[in-house]
Design brief:
With about 375 residues, this protein is α/β, with parallel strands linked by helices. It folds into two domains: about 190 residues, Glycogen Phosphorylase B (Rossmann fold, 3-Layer(aba) Sandwich); about 190 residues, Glycogen Phosphorylase B (Rossmann fold), CATH 3.40.50. The protein is about 45% helix and about 15% strand. The chain is built from 15 helices and 13 strands. The strands form two sheets. A seven-stranded parallel beta sheet has the order 3-2-1-4-5-6-7, with helices on both faces. A six-stranded parallel beta sheet has the order 10-9-8-11-12-13, with helices on both faces. Helix 3 crosses helix 4, helix 8 packs across helix 13 and helix 11 crosses helix 14. It is elongated, with a radius of gyration of 21 Å. The termini are close together.
Length: about 375
């Protein structure tokens, strides 16, 4: 049997959903499933597609409805062209729209069932648009099942009418082998970033308001007052860099901040290795995505870092509070500062949390374990 995964965006487009879908596709293929991924075109996609272990079909990017119809047509063209060696078992939609709309069309036209994924607040962003809300309910309720990356995302599916029996919790994962790095290279980067030996905080994520970089900056004066000099590393590009520079100046901590910009996947483990503590205090903001899980917390744990995250969305699924890290109110800079000071002051606690995070990531959150849970859900739904 075979599976077709539908996504609005696939790598080289960046983001948590893109990474989840692409890594899941590869893990399912390693487990013996025949998998094809279909997504919209993107600059540089042909290079990735040529090297991809999973066959990828691209359709033109457009408005949501036109993209949905293009994805559905691509599924039918794939079947007509005989690109699958085995019967199509199911269509997996990476989100309720446009992939979920496409899955609904395929189900109506061909009778092939589809599964819809829920990652974060995209499942509840229909707002007051009645037509959009009706379509959202239709595409979610008509699915054979819903894959939620966290309890928060599962609750989003319930609120859209999907019964409990048709919801499965399948969080994202990590590739342990991809996070191995030479100690000498880590030490070299560490010496470059902290020549005076100051502890280093790290955030990995796009520079956008809901990721909470500004909240960490607001906490740094309190941290400095109690611990002295610390460094704050921000890895990732984004439109908020200038605003964050202005905030750093406003709080008097510009000398503590280092903007690394975009870092390649191959270099990212070095930045985790060079840091003492990972922190991302994501926020809930109007018309912005809520953190549905947070793969970066797992990646940091895999690299042995204690983590600090927000007590919102799906983050409590990614962090075991008091065991692998701490959860804080993202709107309370004093609480954020207290958590930072607590972990940087108690190195033994930080070490234990980092070790627990590494063990948990390796035990429960490899992509092969994720694919196994995914297959179990399909089997439970008769697919």
């Amino acid at each position: 049997m075979s599976l077709i995964l539908l996504a609005k965006d696939l790598p080289p487009s960046t983001g948590g959903i893109q990474r989840y879908v692409y890594q899941l596709a590869q893990a399912l293929q390693r487990r013996g499933e025949e998998v094809v991924a279909i997504g919209t075109d993107h600059p540089g996609a042909h290079r990735l597609d040529a090297a991809s272990p999973v066959p990828i079909i691209r359709v033109p990017a457009g408005r949501a409805s036109s993209t949905a119809y293009a994805l559905a047509e691509a599924v039918q063209d794939c079947l007509r062209a005989g690109r699958l060696a085995s019967p199509l078992r199911a269509v997996i939609a990476a989100a309720w729209r446009p992939p979920g709309h496409a899955g609904w069309l395929v189900q109506r036209r061909l009778g092939v069932p589809y599964v819809v994924m829920a990652h974060g607040r995209e499942t509840v962003l229909a707002g007051t648009n009645l037509v959009k809300r009706v379509r959202q309910h239709l595409f979610i309720r008509s699915a054979r099942g819903g894959i939620a990356v966290s309890h928060f995302s599962a609750n989003c599916l319930r609120r859209r009418g999907l019964p409990e029996s048709r919801i499965a919790l399948v969080s994202g994962g990590v590739n342990p082998e991809a996070f191995a790095s030479a100690a000498s290279e880590v030490a070299r980067l560490r010496a470059e970033l902290s020549p005076d030996g100051r502890p280093l905080l790290l955030t990995v994520g796009r520079l956008v308001p809901n990721k909470g970089h500004g909240q960490v900056l607001a906490a740094l004066p309190r941290v400095r007052a109690q611990l002295g000099e610390v460094g704050y590393l921000m890895v990732g590009p984004g439109p908020e860099q200038q605003h964050l520079c202005e905030l750093a100046d406003q709080y008097g901590v510009a000398d503590l901040v280092h903007f690394a910009g975009e870092v390649t996947d191959g270099q990212l483990p070095l930045w985790y290795g060079a840091a003492d503590l990972f922190i991302m205090t994501s926020r809930v903001l109007p018309r912005r995505s809520v953190e549905g899980f947070g793969l970066v917390y797992l990646e940091a744990g895999l690299c042995g870092l204690p983590v600090i995250g927000s007590n919102i969305g799906g983050i409590p699924d990614a962090i075991v509070a008091g065991e692998t890290g701490l959860l804080v109110d993202p709107e309370d800079p004093a609480a954020i500062a207290e958590a930072i000071v607590h972990l940087l002051s108690d190195r033994e606690l930080a070490r234990r949390m980092g070790a627990a995070g590494r063990e948990r990531a390796r035990r429960d959150f490899t992509w092969d374990r994720v694919a196994e849970r995914f297959e179990q859900a399909l089997f439970r739904w008769g697919m």
